[in-house]
Each structure stands twice: as structure tokens, then as C-alpha cells.
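Quick question: what would this complex look like in 3D?
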Amino acid sequence: MQATLLQQRLVGLFALGLLLLNFPLLALWDREVLLLGLPLFPTALFLVWALLIAALAWLMESAPD
Amino acid sequence: MLPLPLVLGASFAYLLLLFVVAWWADGRAAAGRSVIGNAWVYALSMAVYCTAWTYFGSVGRAASGGVWFLPIYLGPMLAMLLAWMVLRKMIRIARTYRITSIADFVASRYGKSPLLAGLVTLITVVGIVPYIALQLKAIASGYALLTTPLGAPSTAAGAWWQDTTLYVALALAGFTMIFGTRHLDGTERHEGMVAAIAFESVVKLLAFIAVGVFVTWGLFGGPGDLFARALAVPELAALLSLSQEGRPFAYEQWFALTMLSMLSVVFLPRQFQVMVVENVDERHLKRAAWVFPAYLLAINLFVLPIALGGLLYFGGRPVNADTYVLSLPLAAGQPGLALAAFVGGLSAATGMVIVEAIAVSTMVCNDLVMPLLLRLRRYARHGDLTRLLLAIRRTAIVGVMLLGYLYFRLAGEAYALVSIGLISFAAVAQFAPAMLGGMYWKGGTRAGALAGLLAGFAVWVYTLMLPSIAKSGWWRTDFVEQGPFGISLLRPEALLGLVRLDYLTHSLFWSLLANIGLYVSVSLWRRPTAREASQALLFVEVFDRTQAARPVFWRGRAKVADLVALAGRFLGAAHAERLFAQYARERGLPGVGAIVPDAQLVQHVETQLAGAIGSASARVMVASVVEEETLGMDDVLRILDEASQLRAYSHALERATAELRSANERLESLDRLKDDFMSSVTHELRTPLTSIRALAELMRDDAEMPAAQRQQFLDIVVAETERLSRLVNQVLDMAKIESGHAEWHNADVDLVALIRQAAQTMQELMRERGAELVLDLPESVPTLRADPDRLMQVLLNLLSNAAKFVPAGGGRIELRLTASALGATVEVQDNGPGVPAGQRELIFEKFRQGGDEAHRPQGTGLGLPISRQIVEHFGGHMELRPDRGQGACFAFRLPWQTRAAPAPQSAAPQGDNA
């Protein structure tokens, strides 16, 4: 099976997710800062998560059947 | 607190609602209007991942460890990024070979081994039954909390017959039996059950969000206020950052938890059941892959607010953080919301229990009970077993449920039960190497999978399960602290002195290391057997093969009647009859009587049986009614070869169909081309005919012609006739190839030998023309699958062409053969005048000869077009290399593996529209 463009993008996104959600990139958010009244670290975690979902949704929904 | 009858009434009303939903969905399915046939329901059913452990436990985890509840949900996010590749392949494999459980998947991949199936089932039962107990415990403690005053000690559990949890468990067993084993259809799909699970996912999400909204905006002034107040308390502020109380952040544990949940979301039996077995259409995965993580995000959004809210609200009071979801609304005087929250928790627990019970009971029935049962003389040969099969399934469901309940009664508050979530995850993670390895690596063997699974399971028992039993106080703990017999290197939580890791990461590392290490090394120990190799191929290459071109690894003799009877025993006589009738219909046969009992049929029946009783038992049963030959590795390779040819043909067929569609548009130009062709042919035929006729008339009219002159004329006539018949032969040959009627006799061709033979043949001609033929060949090249006579034709054509154009007396022709990983390339270079720029494109067209009119050599103008057709038939390509002023260089390339025969070519150039 040839790796299609969609498959390569998904693998890329997986690598990105693995990096963003683990050490050391995860530690970048660990500051005592408030974002719109919310503590930065948990907020950033959820935002990264949401961005991954959005990217995945875009890839999956725009791919032809 | 709430009155007991109200709580009981609400929970049983909820269970009743589940029955109604499932009933309705089954009814719709029977009417052909399925409600689960869309991606949204599919994604919601995947959310069975969120159990009571999520619903209550996440808040508890967050209250003690901050963001540490998250890795369990980030892992599935990462897994879903790869779902389109990995999960889709798993679904395709399971669909194609009617695989209905993880045990069957592993067993089938490694040569349909009953031993492997049994081992996987055993690991599942040991790892999962406590997890079911945990769900029952969540329901029980929910009851206790709602019906006793806040803060009061929970009353001692009553006698078992007074325990509501038992009745909930029995009701769930009833539900599972009704909607999980209503009938045997061989695909193990349960529409009603899936609809109910999706419904439960909605209920638990809404209930949890309702509690979250109430805590955030009802008890506090929104998230800003809540977090501000939490940050004001140092202990709570610490929960919101990475490192806590001077402890450095345990990155390796974070990573391990992410990986663990990434594997679990695929390999937990309930996840495999809803994602793979119950999947209706693999395209649903496209949307579900992002909807499911979005669901997980939504259900986790309010975990931190509820945890912090609970900690702030209750202050120092001893309220278990695991119960905040219930106790917060209750304490704030919202009994209605508390009841709703309880129903949400109930839905999380019941959903898990139902699906897990179906999945585990399928395994127990197919992979543990059936193989033993079929060994008994009584069941091995005769009798309708459909009823028995259903009875075993139902008994297994009740058994699993009661086992879970028993464990809950025995373990109660014990550590072993509370920590079981992650311990279960670690158990099912042991399936990953054998499953994933089996899907992507053809070298994995049965012995390797057995060794890996056994080792991984053993290490899991030693490093995770035994310590958890010891910590529960059921066993002395000194072996955990000092090691067995005081050998500290063998301490279960610090094996070989590895003390840096926490107990879960530690266990995961060692168990997966042992598992993967043994799986790979034992697999590499010896070659796979024929059966292992053939199954490996069917799994790894599942996307590359269509139904028609899938090889059937079976040789032997069978009778249709025997197979019908066999299918009837396990699927029911009526179902079996329908099955065979459909098989006949699909092949265009008039009836069941006309079916030929070939390998295809045997394979078909075996696959159908596998759906009902598992692939290992199906194999044994089919083998018992047919006479079969044991396949060796040579047979497997031969069957494969045949199948790949079949595949080539079916590709060709597909392409032909596609071309037919565009043929209409091309008809007009084809018509014109045909006219051109006809006029060329007639022209070429007329020229020799005219000269023959003229000479013949001359000889007829002139009786006194000298004998020498007559002889010369006759020689010309003979030569012209020869040219004429050559032309006719080539036109016929061309027409045959183009129309696809040419016969190809494929064999393994050694190109080096073939080229030497061609050079031998041309020797005389070369000598006549005074040309020198230089061969530049490697020692040896891999053999090629092609028709040697046809390839010879191509070689001779190129060589004789070159010989025609080289200067008389000083000709030099070089023939080079080069081999690469992809294929072989043959180049024929001459030192003639080369091909003029204007004719480079035309030269491969029919009746276009090189050279100008005056120097046109003998020939028909069909040699090159025919050669090109032949090369393209074998998937290759022929071209005229760019002219470098040293004569013409023709080259053709042939791939080692013939991929597809091109469809009948038209004379029009083909657009590259692939």
C-alpha cells in the first residue's frame, strides 16, 4: 500500500501531538500566569488538545472518500 | 439524602429505558432502517471508554494530583490520529475473515492456533473481571452515598440477597443476554446494544457537564472566581502546575500513561468490540476519529473545576474526592441534580459492563469452551449445535457478571480493586505486540506470539498484580518490600534494582520489554510454517487484495453436502441453506446443486463458521469433513503466484471497465484511426502484389525469356511473397495483441541467457552486414516472469533494426543489460545515422519506418509497435533514448514483478490519468 498524502499528514500530526503533549515542550507552559483568569498550564493543555482535534477533523473531513 | 425507593426506582427506570432503546433500534434494524449506521453513533459508542472510573475517578485523581487525570485521555487522542491507518486495517481484517474478538484475531493471524486463543482469553478474564467489579462497586457506593446522611459512615453491607448491586448486575446480565446473544449471525453485530451504548454515552456526558456547570457557576462565580480562589490556597495552587511540593514532574510516568492509554483504547475488549466488531462501515471511522477525542475533551473539561470546587467547598471535611460528583450537588441542596449525576454514573458503569460482558463471553465461548467441547466424541461429529452455542454464550455472560460481583463482594474497599483501572490497562497492553506486529510484520510466528504473550503476562502478574494483592492485605507484603526469599534484586516493584520508576511505569517497561523481546526473537528463531506464512500474508496485505484475487491456501477434496451439513450444525439449517443459495447466486450458478466443491467454497464455509465459533475451531471442524492435503511452503508460494496473476488480470479487468466508459468519446477518433490503418495495410500489401503481378505477366507474355532472366524474376517474386506473408503475419500478430487475444506462455526468464541466445541467432546476419555485436551483461540477474518467446521477438527486432542501419562493414552494436531493485533495463545502441528529430515520436507508430524514402530498408514498419506492445504487456516501458549524435539507442525496462497487464491498447496515445 502506497502511503497517501493523507496518511503522511496523519503520521506527521501524530508526531506533532506526541511532541506537544510530552516533555520537554509540555514544561514550557508551566508558569504562574493567568490566561483570561484561567491558570495557564491546564488551559494550554486543553488548547493543544483542541487544536489537535481541529487539525484531525480538518484532515479527515476534507479527504475524499 | 434521598429516599431509597426513589433512587432504586430511578435506576431501574433507567435500565428499563435502556431496554426500550435497544428494542427500538433492533426493530428499526429489522425493518431495514438502521439507526446505528452513521459516524456519530459510532463515535458515541466508542465513548464506552469512559467508565465509572472516568466519571467518578477522574475527579478523585484531579483532587490529589492535578492534571494527572489527563494522560488517560490524551493517549486516545494520539491513537485516533493513527486510527485511519491502524484501526481501519484492523476493521478490514476482522471483516474479511469474520473475526469477532481479540483472541480470535491473534489466533487467526498465527495459523489459527487454539492455544493462543485460549491464552489471550485467559489474560482477558484475569485482567478484566476485576475491572467489571470496579464498576459494580461504583454503583454500590453511589447508592450508599445518596441514601445515607452526608458524612455518616456508610452502613455495613447487608446480606447478599439484600444487595441492590447484585440485582443491577443480574439486570445487566439479562440485558446483555437479550441484546447480545439473541441470534447467531456470524458477524457478532448487535444493533440494539450499540444504540443503547451510544445513548448511555450521551446521558453520562450531559449529566457530568450539568454537575460541572452547577459547581462552576452555581457554587462559584464562574471559572475565573473558582480558579482565583483555588490559587489563593497554596496546596490547591500546586495542583495547577507541573511539579508539586518540591517533587519534580515525573515525565516518564506521564509518557508511560499516555502510551498505555493509547494502546488500551484499541486493545481493551470492549473497545475492540465497539470499534472493530460492531463497525458498520469503515468510512465511519473518518468522522469518528475526531468526534471521539472531542467527546473525551468535553467530558474532561469540568474535571478540574469539580475537583477544586469540592476541595474548596468541603474544606477540611472528610469527603472522598471520588464522590464529589454526587456529594457536591447533595450538600448544596440539589437532590434532583444529585440523582441525575447518579444516573450518569450508572450509565457509565452499565455501558462498560454490558460491552465487556459480550466481548469476554464471546471469547470464553469460542476460544475456551468450544475447542474443549469439540474434542468430545459426542459433539465432534453430529447434531445441531446452535442452541448449545447460544446457551454457552448466555452462561458465559452470567458467569462473567457473577464473577465480577463476587470479586466486588470479596475485595470491597481493597487496594486491588481501587487500582484495577490502570492494572487492567497494563494487562491488555500485552496484546499490542502480537496484534500490531501481526498486522505489519509477516515474520511473526505462533511460537513468538506465545512466548511474548506468556512472558508479558507473567511479568505483569509478578510486578503489578501480586503486589496489588499483597497491598490489599490478603498476603504478606514482605515479598514486595524485600523481594522473594529476601533477594532484593527480585523485588516486584524494583526488578533488578530498577528503583527510579513508579510501580506502573516499572511494570509496563519490563512486561512490554519481555513481551516484544521474546515475540521478535522467538519469531526470528525459525522460518514461519506454511500456515503461518499464508495467514501472515492475508493479514498484512489485506488492503492489496480484492475479493476475487485473494489467494486460497487450501488443497484437497470436499463434498458440498458435507459442507452444508457442517454449516447447518453451527449456523442452523435454514441459515446454512440461505448461505449456499447466496453463494451459488453470486457465482451465477442455477442452484446449490451446481456448486463445485473447490477451495473457494471450503474457504467460504470456513470463514462463515469462524464468525460463529472462532477461526481455530472452524479450522478443526472443516478439516474433519474434508480430505485435505498439508500445504508446504512451495505450495503456498505457488498459490500466491497464481493469485498474483489473477490479481493482474482483475486489475486489467478493472482498467478495461474504466476505459470502456471513456471509449464512447474516443469512438470517433478510433474510427478514423482504423481507416488510416486499413489504408496503410492495403498500401503495404499492394506494393509487393503489384511487383509480383508485373513480373508474372512479363514471364507469361514473353515465352522466349532467357532462363537466367526468368530465374532472376522468380527470385524477386519469391522474396516479395515472403515479405507479403511476413507482413500478413505481423498484422495478425499486432491485431491479436491489441485485441488481447494473444497467447502468453509465462515462465521464469533468465534475461542474461535469453540475450546470449538472441546474439547467437543474430550472428549470421551480423556477419553478413559486417557488423560487430558487443554484449555488456552482468554475471546474473534475478529471473523475470514473462513469455520468453515474446521477449526474444523484441530482442531480435531491436537487433535486426540496428543491424539494418549501421554502416556496412564498420557497424558496431552494443547491447547493455543493467539490473536495479525495480527491474531490468536493456539498451541497444548502434552507430548508425540515428533517428531524425522529426521522426522520434512517429517511430513507434505502425507503418512508420525510419530512414528517408530512398534509403528505406526492408521491413514492414510493424516491428517496433509490436515490440512496444509486448514490453508494455509485461508492465514495462520502451523508449528511444535521447540522441547524443552516436546513433540510435533503443531501451526497454521490465519490472521484476509484473504488476498489471495493460488493457488492450488503442493506437491513440494514452493520457496519464492514474
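Answer marked as accepted. The beta strands of chain B are 556-557, 627-628, 747-749, 771-776, 784-786, 811-819, 823-830, 877-880, 889-895.
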